[in-house]
Specification:
Radius of gyration: 26 Å
Distance between the termini: 59 Å
Strand content: 5-15%
Shape: globular
Length: about 700
């Protein structure tokens, strides 16, 4: 690949890359030791649409400007090519996603991607991406332009005069181009680039971490955030007492995690349909009935007091509505079955119908992505509007399959998983769900040997927030086939957990697709995978089939499918960063005389058990939790920590929270399990590990003084 001259004293400088073989391509570049590949190796242009070669993604990139290394992001030329089949006009969306990926990895990572196309009867237009530091000496960003002359065959080469309308680099940003004539380069503008971006990309370098950011949407760049900024101890404590109202900004409806804080679009839809904000919409009657369970059992039975008619369902505008009472709001949170912000927005726009054709196409892509990671048959994958909805319906299927006998919660779980005990056949939660949250195998053995019938044992890989991993082989041996095991792999991820290493007693896996699978934080979703090797498979799958209705909104399905393309590329970086940061925290910041009492992460917590079920090429994930020797210092550290802070986890940008304040009320209710108010939970993203470490060091230093 030949390199043309740099042109005079231009600002920005222009580097010309002439290569008529330019193909549809995208490569993510990051750290590969220089000794591993020579420049000539890295410089090869792969134009034969092979998927990979020696770890490289199919693509085109210039090693002379980007000679560090390469890492595939799961986006190959073959994918882009397939997206351009006749009658499928996805090219713009594909490239915007790739450009967004670039924005998402600007701290030390490097992307080349450009995808021009000329539609019949229209002027040429150009999509482009910004890359970080492709010219290492200048340490600047840069725009890469791919000549469209070889795309679609025979498209005439545009002049620079035409192209510069679409490329407006900022000052000191070099421009690299393939097949572009030299004419007119002196006229390149120096305006700010406004390239398509992945929601949350700005949070990598500019996190929402100060008190002034309170209530801002997480991620930025979307109308459908799944979190909101809660950047201080004070705000977290207020949220525990007052809920979402503390997140209001300038009279706007507060944003938050959509199961905890009803999205603004849903409130607007309630206002439009009923003239007030206090109605909760559900996609079908079964979902509304599920959410009304507390009103229709605890309240109607006189165990709790509620409003008259609060459990009654109103059908209006194709949706099924419940009054927003205390108990129905709990149902909204615990079941995760309410409509999404995208569905509410469609209702506001007069588009109430779910496009089932588009949903089916998107769901096929989602299931393919899941099966590629797990080896499951697509027919054994069930999709839900949230991860909690998957847990809710799987719990109901277990009740249907095994009758009115309790399940066991083994190990400390995410809060709403434990709350499923309220949604069983008995009024008494303790009769629906037996509490072994302390992970005591002896207690489980005593229970089974007592003759107690069980509908299942529920556990996590690993647990949230203390990252403990249950020994599923040991649980299976105790149960001796008498009950199925259900494992929530949201934190471990389908990328890291090896399905083939699980015991046959594991009948189902449940995943929140909102988290790592999607990674951007701009869509909710969940899945359940049934495992055919389990002796409980037929019985439990039959029960789930009898009650399952797909209520996923098509636009959410499309967003999940789109985001899932990022998952195979982001997870290796998240794994590496998580392990690097956890190791540093454990070795240098934990112990007597140091800030931390404990660092919890699968690389240092229950590691032997975690790795027993881990894929050979998997990792330990990005979630970790810190316990401080001085609880008050934890709050000072949190306030000073320069990362985005708010509910949720599994985003490609680092996200922190004071977990106990957000998930448990009263705070003392979980103290006996080691879940104390001073825990700082961190979900590490794809930022440069050294940069993250420096931010943590700053917060440690700042928090040292009382």
């Amino acid at each position: 690949m030949s390199s043309g001259p740099e042109f005079g004293e231009l600002n920005p400088p222009v580097i010309i890359q002439e290569d008529p073989r330019a193909c549809l391509s995208a490569c993510l570049l990051s750290e590969l030791p220089d000794s591993t590949k020579s420049e000539s190796d890295v410089s090869r242009v792969l134009i034969d649409d092979m998927l990979y070669e020696e770890g490289f993604g199919t693509g085109l990139y210039p090693a002379r400007e980007l000679d560090n290394s390469t890492r595939k992001l799961g986006l190959s030329a073959s994918y882009i090519y397939d997206a351009r089949e006749p009658d499928i006009d996805e090219d713009t969306r594909v490239v915007e996603r790739l450009a967004g990926i670039d924005r998402a990895i600007r701290n030390g990572q490097k992307v080349i991607v450009a995808f021009p196309k000329r539609r019949e009867g229209e002027a040429p237009f150009l999509h482009y991406a910004v890359i970080k530091g492709f010219d290492e000496e200048k340490n600047g960003d840069g725009v890469v332009v791919l000549d469209p002359s070889d795309v679609d065959g025979g498209i005439e080469r545009p002049s620079w005069e035409e192209l510069k309308q679409y490329v407006t680099p900022s000052e000191d940003v070099p421009v690299m181009a393939w097949g572009i004539s030299k004419a007119g380069k002196e006229e390149v503008a120096t305006e700010t680039i406004e390239e398509p971006g992945l929601p949350g990309s700005s949070l990598l370098a500019e996190p929402l971490w100060t008190a002034e950011d309170t209530g801002k949407a997480i991620p930025t760049g979307t109308d459908h955030p799944s979190s909101t900024a809660m950047p201080t101890f004070g705000i977290s404590a207020q949220f525990n007492n007052l809920g979402g109202i503390v997140l209001s900004r300038e009279g706007e409806y507060p944003k938050g995690y959509p199961r905890f804080v009803v999205p603004p679009q849903v409130k607007e839809l309630s206002l439009g349909v009923f003239g007030h904000l206090n109605m909760l919409p559900f996609p079908n009657r079964a979902s509304a009935q599920a959410a009304a369970h507390l009103e229709n059992t605890y309240v109607q039975a006189g165990i709790e007091s509620g409003g008259e008619g609060a459990g009654e369902i109103t059908e209006q505008e194709g949706l099924f509505w419940l009054p927003a009472t205390k108990f129905n709001l709990e149902g909204w949170q615990h079941t995760g079955l309410g409509i999404s912000s995208r569905q509410a927005a469609a209702g506001l726009e007069g588009r109430p119908e779910n496009d089932l054709v588009r949903r089916e196409a998107a769901e096929h892509k989602i299931k393919v992505a899941i099966t590629e990671q797990t080896g499951a048959d697509p027919g054994d994958v069930y999709l839900f509007p949230t991860g909690m909805a998957g847990i809710y319906w799987l719990n109901q299927a277990m009740i249907r399959a095994y009758g009115s006998v309790p399940a066991v919660q083994f190990g400390f779980p995410y809060t709403d998983t434990y709350e499923q005990g309220k949604y069983g056949p008995a009024y008494n939660k303790n009769e629906n769900l037996i509490d072994i949250r302390d992970g005591n195998y002896g207690s489980l053995r005593e229970l089974v040997e007592s003759g107690q019938q069980l509908r299942g044992v529920i556990t996590e890989y690993p647990s949230n927030p203390l990252l403990a991993t249950a020994d599923m082989d040991r649980i299976d041996a105790i149960l001796r086939g008498k009950a199925p095991i259900v494992v929530d792999d949201t934190i471990g991820t389908t990328f890291n957990l090896d399905d083939g290493k699980l015991p046959d007693g594991v009948a189902a896996r449940v995943t929140s697709l909102t988290k790592f699978f999607s990674s951007t934080g701009d869509v909710m979703g969940g899945s359940v995978i049934m495992r055919p090797d389990s002796p409980h498979y037929k019985r439990l799958k039959r029960a789930l089939d009898e009650i399952y209705t797909d209520t996923l909104w098509y636009e959410d399905a499309e967003k999940l499918a789109e985001n899932s393309e990022l998952f195979p590329g982001f997870m290796p970086v998240i794994n590496a960063n998580g392990e690097s940061i956890a190791r540093w925290l454990s070795e240098e910041q934990t112990g007597a005389g140091r800030p931390l009492e404990n660092t919890y992460h699968p690389s240092v917590t229950d590691t032997e058990i975690y790795e027993r079920y881990m894929k050979e090429d998997g990792g330990h994930g990005g979630l970790m939790t810190l316990r401080f020797n001085d609880p008050e210092r934890a709050f000072r550290f949190y306030d000073a920590l320069r990362v985005t802070k708010g509910p949720s986890l599994g985003t490609f940008y680092t996200l922190g929270c004071l977990y106990t304040y957000l998930a448990h009320k009263p705070l003392v209710s979980v103290k006996k399990f080691g879940v104390t108010p001073d825990l700082v939970r961190l979900s590490v993203g794809i930022e440069d590990a050294a940069e993250l470490r420096s931010r943590f060091e700053e917060a440690f230093d700042s928090s040292a003084a009382g």
